[in-house]
Amino acid sequence: MRHNVALGKSQSFCEDLLKPLIGTSLKRFLRDYKRNHRPDMDIVGLLQSVEYPANVGSCFRLADGAGLTELVLTGITPCPPNATIDKVGRFKSLRVPWHYENDPLVAIGELKAAGYQMVAVELTDTAVPYHTYIYSQKTCLVVGHEDHGITKATLNACDASVFLPMYGKGMSLNVHVALSIVVYHILHVQGD
179, 45 in Cβ contact below 8 A? Predict the structure, then answer.
């Protein structure tokens, strides 16, 4: 048995203190946390030609977990029902409000008319680090194709763009990962 030198206690003692929540205990824990810490932010995700169903499924799972208002699927983004979207997203497309609009510019126009600020999660010449931007209470985050990003026309319709600083050799993160980071930043830095 390994011992924790600093505390002089065995590893099994530490394991006894940390127990994963399951079943009813997990549901109660998450329910109580949500009741006491619900951020007051209205966030929509717009997927502009996100091509791979696994990424779309991950976005549905994020949308459910983070309490997004809606997902808007545009362009060549695959729509539910789709076996991969359903499996990866754990059927969250049945719970998360979503709709499809072929033309992202039409969707952006509708969201702007509803009072949303359009923020592209994209590397552009005017992009600012995501954690320095001040998001409005009603924000739509726009993400694009895995290889080509957001089109110029869609970018021109957005109000701003933010990026995730990359400190390794890669230049970007997977689209659903990038969206997740920005969503949770908005919820817990600005929404609290």
Answer: yes
Q: Output phi, psi for 163, to 5 deg.
A: -135, 160
- pTM greater than the 0.85 cutoff: yes
The C-alpha atoms of residue 151 and residue 104 are separated, in whole angstroms, by: 10
Helix (H) or strand (E) holding 65: helix 53-66
Question: How far is 187 from 38, CA to CA, in rounded Å?
Answer: 9
DSSP state string for 81-149: S-HHHHHHTTTGGGTS-EEEES-HHHHHHHHHHTTPEEEEES--TT-EETTT----SEEEEEE-BTTTB
Q: Does residue 63 sit in the same domain as residue 27?
A: no
149 and 79, same structural domain?
Answer: yes
Domain count, the chain: 2
First to last CA, the chain: 43
Q: Are residues 29 and 88 in the same domain?
A: no
**Where in the sequence is the domain holding 9, given as residue range(s)?**
1-38
State pLDDT tens for residues 160-173.
999 999 999 999 99
